Amino acid sequence: MAEEKVIVAKPATAEAKPVAPTSPAPSAARPSAGGRPTGAPHGDRPRGDHKGGPRRDRADKEFEERVVSINRVSKTVKGGRHMRFAAIVVVGDGKGQYGFGTGKAGEVPDAIKKALEAAKKKMYRISLEKGDTISHEIIGQFGACKVFLKPAPAGTGIVAGGPVRAILELAGVKNVYSKVYGSRAPINIIRATNNGIENLHTYSQVKLLRGK
Length: 212
What we know:
20% of the residues lie in helices and 28% in strands. It is elongated and about 65 Å long. The chain has a domain at 64-207: Ribosomal Protein S5, domain 2 (2-Layer Sandwich), CATH 3.30.230. By secondary structure, it is of the alpha+beta class. It has helices at residues 108-121, 163-171, 186-198, 203-209; strands at 64-77, 80-92, 97-105, 124-125, 138-142, 145-151, 158-159, 176-182.
């Protein structure tokens, strides 16, 4: 005999609907301590958005600065020797304006800072002739130091050394001959050079002096 299959009916239940997989809802971007929203890619960060605000371009310096000399000096007091540093600095814009100054302090940066402040307090001017040179020969003098300055044709350059070169370059002179006589102290050379520059006369000034 053929075996009979018994089918047992199951109670009807609510058919479960398949649930489609869903991605987690994106959380609201919260700013982090660095200013960039949490979870945002690095490429979305705006340029200049960093701690401390947008970057600012550094302002161009009005004057070029040059340290001519740094010397260690001492003062003997009751408790011993008091050591300090003396700095000589020249500043200029390369267009006929220049200045120089000295400063003393216990540290080199402080001495340079004082010298720069002194140099910018009193500025001098030089009238440049054609070819970026001086108008005529001159001898500047300060104390036991004499500095001879002579105009030179274009392409000669500055035939000078040390302090004289520094003050002429920053003043804007590009062609000149020079010679130092006597004292070789840097500050005396600078003051003698400045004395020579201040005594220069332009062509128009000489015409007025001669009554032409």
